[in-house]
Amino acid sequence: MDKCRILIVNDSPVACAIIRAILEADGAYKIVGEAPTGRDAVRNMDALRPDIVLMDIHMPEMDGVEATRRIMANHKTSVLVTSATINRNLSYIFEAQAAGAIDFIHTPTLLRRPGSKVSDRELKQAGRNLLYKLRGIQKLRQKEKESLEAKLPAKRAVHAEHVDMPHLPKRPQPAMGKPLIAIGASTGGPSTIVDMLSGLTHPFPIPILVVLHIDEHFSQGFASWLQDQTGFRCNLIERVTSIRPGEVYVAPGGNRNMVFT
Fold first, then answer.
1. Which residue has the higher pLDDT, 149 or 100?
2. In whole angstroms, what is the distance from residue 207 CA to residue 212 CA?
3. Helix, strand, or coil (residue 27)
4. What is the pTM of this model?
């Protein structure tokens, strides 16, 4: 099986060296290049043809948001944002996701003295979150490929015939409560949620609930960004609450649920 092709885009030589060492220790990835700026990454996409781009945010010449936007406009690849300071860069990271990035992660670090020897086991441990994200992206890419192939069935003759269906009892109608909209999204969801909400009128007559696959530490940042992008008042729900028409309610990340009265 061919190895997954990775392009590292980061202006820090130390970060590039750590990411390279982690991926080489894992053995399932082929690093096809390193780019110190977003502009270099965009310029070399045709030649390198990476499956996944590891994209830093703040770089000279062109930042990660604009580089992601240009790459996703012209290439069938996946962009994973890597940042050393996620909490301070959440708005930029969500902008990159709106431009097409599939997810984000802290840039891996190694607490070792320069020149010290690091085992493959230690490298994999330091990069466990990165490797977990990469495997998840690979699974998504494989599912997309299988879905496309399934839409191209082999040509075959089809014969129609009458079939008597047994009488089926009518399904009882559910009790009608107050209307609402519920949106669930997984990896890569922020841009889709923004598109959906941006198409709604203001004021909107019913409440909107949003559940997103996201780390709980970044939930408030997502709610604030979503409000800036859509103009809706967006509330992060952390306790039982009443809901109001025309407002968005965001579930906190992690293994938690929204409960309303």
1. 100
2. 17
3. coil
4. 0.76
